[in-house]
Amino acid sequence: MNHKVVVKPAGKKPMGQRIKAFAVDFGKQWELQSMILPGILFMVVFCYIPIYGLTIAFKSYTVIDTMSSAPWTGLDNFRIIMTDKYFWESVVNTLAISFLKLAIGFVIPIVLAIMIYEVNLKRFKKFVQTVSYLPHFISWIVLGGMLITWFSTTGLFNQVLLELGLISKPQNILLDPNKYWWIATLSDIWKEAGWGTILYLAVMAKIDPTYYEAARIDGASRLRQIWHITIPNMRTIISLNLILTVSGLLGSNLDQTLVLMNSQNREKAEVINSYVFRMGMTQGDFSYATAVGLGVSIVSVILLVAANQVTSKLNDNQSVL
Amino acid sequence: MNRKAAAVGLDSRIFDAVNIALLAIFTILIVIPLWNVVVSSFSSGKALAEGGFVFWPKELSLENYRAVFRDNGIWHAFLISVCKTVIGVATHVFFCAMVGYGLSKRYVRGRKLYMAMGVITMFFSGGMIPTYLLIKSLGLLNSFWVYIIPALLSFYDVIILMNFFRNVPEALEESAKIDGAGDWRIFLHLFIPLSMPALATIALFNGVGQWNDFITTKLYVNDQSLYPLQMMLYEIIVQSQTQSMQNVAGSYVMETTTKGVQLATIVITTMPIVVIYPLLQRYFISGIMLGAVKE
Amino acid sequence: MRMNRKSWRKKGLALLAALMAVVLALAGCKSGDGSGGKQAEASLDGRYTPDPNTPAWKLDKKAEPTELTWYVNADWWNTDFGNDTVTRKIKQDLNINIKFIKGDDTKLNTFFAGGQMPDLITIFDSNSPTAKKADTWALPLNDLADRYDPYFYKVAAKDTLNWFKLKDGKTYGYPDYSNTQADYDSGYIPATTAFIIRKDVYEALGKPSMGTPEQFKAVLNDIKRKFPDLIPFGFNAIGQGTGSLGDVLQDFIGVPLEDQNGNFYNRNLDPDYLTWVKTLNEAYRNGAISDDSFADDGTAFEEKVKTGKYATILLSGTPQQGGNLQTFMSNNPGKEYIAIDGPQSTVGNKPTLNQSGITGWMITYITKKCKDPAKAIQIYTYLLSDEGQMLMNYGIEGETYKKNADGTVELLPAVKEMQINNPDKFKKDYRLGEFIFFGHDRYKALSKDSFPDAIKQMQEWGKGKLKPHFILENINPDPGTPEARSLSAIDAKWSTTLVSMIRAKSDADRDKALSDYQKFLTDNNWDKIVQIYNEKMKANKEKLGLQ
To answer: What homologous superfamily does CATH list for C56-182+359-449?
Structure first.
């Protein structure tokens, strides 16, 4: 019933036979297929049917248009975007921030999850866990407002730095374009690190504790235990998250950008979706936004496939997908 | 042996100490701003505008909460939120688990095609207008089911569950099959109980998503009796912002600042999740596998 | 094994049946694209005969109430109808039931794309394709008025109707707060910008004048010395624009609206204005302007106003800050903000303060799919008439307001009390001043209660300083064109440039910022944009009957 080892003769079987073989297998896997097919049906209805909306990218579509009334403009929208110098500046900013978030922000939830997992004091553990994910629920509008207050010249940040003697004059770092990437990254990490541990903790919950006992008896230090037991068991989920994060490199947080961006840091703060928001949506130009979205999606899929290849190799050639 | 054990013992204790210390710092970094949020929500608008306090409001006031609870409709909205979250999560988790289980078997025919189709849906979307027209033609506009049916599947969740299912030792499945169980039976009676942490995680993610979602309402629902909590809160915030927008005759002394109301909203929305999470937590505690197979 | 196969089959069949049911259900639910309201020609047989001297709603004998859907393109619109004084009377008098729908551009598009149009639509952007192509989806008001309600011409402003004419010579939309030249001349329109200073600060310094750049700087320095806890100079949040330091400041010192030949004039490069920008820069270097002011968002600015953190403010939008200014005043008597003359032109120009122009704010249309266009135009007439305007602003005479001997209007004490002490109940029960389609400042001027006390002196100060900016309305390039995109980039650049100039550490830095901006203009189609500006200004002047 399970892993059939099929020895295929050289050359492909004729079509008729292959269809028959497929149908036979399909029938045998009937129950499994019956589990998957509703999902496929769902995707066809809710994702693939509306996908004709992507054609807006090749038209000139405004608020009063219907799908048929909007005129075709072919690759015009793409041409406009590709030749727009400021669009490419926003791409640079997007990639920079995403890379920072990947380099720092990807590892932190893993480390944090391990730290929480290793704690033996039950109440402390529960407390830290609960507290850690709460920032996830603060909206960027509120968090942004808080950051504006803290980074002001009379705010907490400057006060602390003055006390520690690190600076002589208070400075509002939100006005400094060069600091923006760090502000965006670190504030995002603060907000999401705790929430990111949940998935990892769920994985770690399934690790057989006897492994740790054995390692302890063998004299392994805690760090070694983590390195040789905990982390390998999280390989698949880390790979999965890594793939998805890499595929999302061209994305960014619009809410965060809109609230932290100002006239002084714009050159480093404008990211793809805030730029598109300004150029596309506020002018009622749906086509522009759709075209950029389509381009970003295509690149994201390419990144996904590439990342998947890389992680598969590291996972004994087993793809996470 | 003794020296090794002793060394391990010491190393273990140092590790614990450092670990706890670092976590404590981390916790403080989180708690201080959070505490500020909670405490600010109980502050009067005036004191909030003046700012400057960190740990205790200058002027305690329930005005922000009163602004939110003013409308009696908010209790009905709360009910709608609970319903859509409970029903939505149950159906979503089951649906995704079912699909994920099927896809977890690498020998399933057509698997590569299914995966490709699924991954594409994670990145490509037709956009809001065709989706709106679809929802309309399905008769889901202004219906409670618009919260449930379009939310049945998330391919990301399917992939996560798929990977969890793969981690279940084959031996367990083999022995079940020898006993004559079919795939459905194995799925329902074996895999689901064994994958509680994964299911609980997906339930949590989806639950939070359902609880916080108001975009679905904004786009597809006009009937106020179907408004969930978040939509009502969103309206309250937007309404208090428009006071300053319109030339409203006599929008005199605003008792509540928008900020105060927003903070109260966050506290109100987060409260149920803070309450529910500890209940789900027991699924995350490392458990010994039921009927473990002795290698 | 056998038993297994049987159970498999059972399960399989059950599942198949379920799947089929789902598919059938979906297919069944797929109703065709709903026809919605077909355009019904409202026949007036038996209802009434139109009379140019009587509003049609008074004559209409239609028995059953008309149900109308009205879409407002704003998230914040209050969709209630019929439960408060104002809308209850409207419901009664016109025999209608309005179902409001609110939303944003995406929602608006679903109506166009999906084919189920509401009966009336209100939008906010006169430059959008929605407004510009209104002839494709809306009914011309002229035709409707001629056919169903000629009294409309008595209450609608001719200049406004003219302004909103499309290429076919017909008018489709009508706005609120549309001010004509006559309105500006009447003096009923209050100014909404002012240079304000805290009274205690003003008096402590001996009521100094701040008109010239030197005086301005000197006084700010004094403030800094004498009141170290206050920020000497504040302004509206910059955000993506220029706060109150761009065209608001230009209007304050009276920078001309066009050049001597009647063509477009880039006010941002005006020497008088740049002198003042230089002054602000020098003030900044002296510590009179805080960096925080440039990072603040709207909420942060409002908080500073509410707590009196700024000693002086160049304020745009006095009614919007009315609540905050009132709060500060109530809590700090004797320290309230008052308007003084503030910065003056260095070349003798008079202020040209701006207010709502002839384009107005909310523009309402009657769609081609309207079930009862006669009723719809009656709504316009009703709300535009004195009766409707008084109802909207003040409610019902004797019930919520009374007329004084001197012609002013006053809310009855019980109502006023609720307005101050229980604003939410006030909103719910009375809803005065909120149902603002077709609203107009001329009616607001009738009552002393229309604006909070805190800004009354500021409005007094502004009297006689307003100048219409009609010729500059709607002159931006059409959305979606390359010039529109260039303009968007230019506007963003200007926002950065202005702030950089004010924060410049030296004169050289400031000059460089300005020259960068000028270079940016040439690199970004500026001459094409100016060409478009000139064309549209010319068209505006023709519409207004100027030159």
So the answer is: Periplasmic binding protein-like II (3.40.190.10)
